[in-house]
Each structure stands twice: as structure tokens, then as C-alpha cells.
Design goal:
With about 180 residues, the chain is α/β, with parallel strands linked by helices. The protein has a single domain (about 30-175), classed as Glutaredoxin. About 25% of the residues lie in helices and about 25% in strands. A seven-stranded mixed sheet has the order 2-1-5-4-3-6-7. Strand 4 (about 90-95), helix 3 (about 100-110) and strand 5 form a beta-alpha-beta unit. The protein is globular and about 35 Å long.
Length: about 180
């Protein structure tokens, strides 16, 4: 499994050419991110393995302040109570830096962390890179043991799974 540390642009171990399949262990990583708390942006490092014990939704998106990405992340913020009600954390991941993420989160009052994969290392680990120049819009649902249980990877990136679809996947994990 690849290992990525905050601020690093390289990985150790093999990169995945294709997205990992459902039932595989999710590649671990640590990335810097920003989260709005009470209207204030707080920066920190986010390590996937530190979330063990609860599900995580990883939403890879191409760019801050773009029309489809804005609709996607705003819809996930609107559905955040349903996600967290099922015990899940939601992380958005894109190649923009923390300053861009902070501005985007503040502009749209986004309710979950936005992680900066500026070197696309995590994007490559998850097999959702567009030839090293961008990100394929993708969502991975990871269970509390760190296994990928569901994924949605787009070819073009003009669509995204609805919050209700992700909630249904999380509810299935919880046996509800």
C-alpha cells in the first residue's frame, strides 16, 4: 500500500493504474486540509487510517469554484446531517491548495474538510488521475475497517452521485 505524508508529492509503493475495487483495502494517506468551524477556517492534517472505526466518504473533485464541483459539494453539505447521522466523515479532495480551498469553503459555507492533493499523489493512489493533469470526479465509501465498499468513478466528470445515493450506501453499511 502506498504511503503519503502531508506536503509530500511522492508515494512509496506501487501506484494504482485503475481505481481500487470494492472489497479492497483503501490506500492510506495523509493530506493537509481546511475545515470551517463556526465561520473560521481551521487547517490541519487528515490521515485516513485515523478514521478507523467509522465510515468515510472520499469525494474527489476536479476544482474549486467550478459549476459542477460547486453543485456537488453544496449538495453534500446539504446532506451532511444524513451522512454524520450514520457515523460517517466526508472529505473533499482536489488538486488546489489550501488557500483556494479556504476561499471556496467560506464562499459556499461547505461543512466538511477540503483536502489539498496538490501533487496528485493520492489521486494516483486511487486511480482517478487524468494523466497527471487533473482528477476524475469520483466518490469512494470506505467502511470502519478501511475497506472500500462502494465507488462511483466518472469518465467525463459532468455528473456526480446524489447525496441520497451515498446515504443509501452508508445505511447499508450500518445495516439500516
Amino acid at each position: 500500500m502506498g504511503v503519503l505524508t502531508a506536503g509530500a508529492a511522492t508515494t512509496e509503493g506501487p501506484e494504482m493504474a485503475k481505481p481500487p475495487a470494492a472489497g479492497m483495502t483503501a490506500p492510506d494517506f495523509t493530506l493537509p486540509g481546511v475545515l470551517l468551524t463556526g465561520g473560521t477556517a481551521e487547517r490541519g492534517d487528515y490521515e485516513l487510517s485515523a478514521q478507523r472505526g467509522k465510515p468515510v466518504v472520499l469525494a474527489f473533485y476536479p476544482g474549486d469554484n467550478t459549476p459542477v464541483c460547486t453543485r456537488q459539494l453544496c449538495s453534500y453539505t446539504s446532506g451532511l446531517d444524513a451522512f454524520t447521522g450514520l457515523g460517517a466523515a466526508v472529505w473533499g479532495i482536489s488538486p488546489q491548495d489550501l488557500n483556494s480551498h479556504e476561499s471556496f469553503a467560506l464562499k459556499y459555507d461547505l461543512g466538511f474538510p477540503l483536502l489539498a492533493d496538490t501533487g496528485l499523489a493520492v489521486t494516483r493512489l486511487y486511480g482517478v488521475s487524468l494523466g497527471g493533469v487533473g482528477v476524475r470526479r469520483s466518490v469512494f465509501v470506505i467502511d470502519g475497517e478501511g475497506m472500500i465498499r462502494w465507488k462511483h468513478v466518472t469518465l467525463v466528470g459532468l455528473t456526480f452521485p446524489a447525496a441520497a445515493t451515498i446515504t443509501a450506501q452508508l445505511a447499508a453499511l450500518a445495516g439500516q
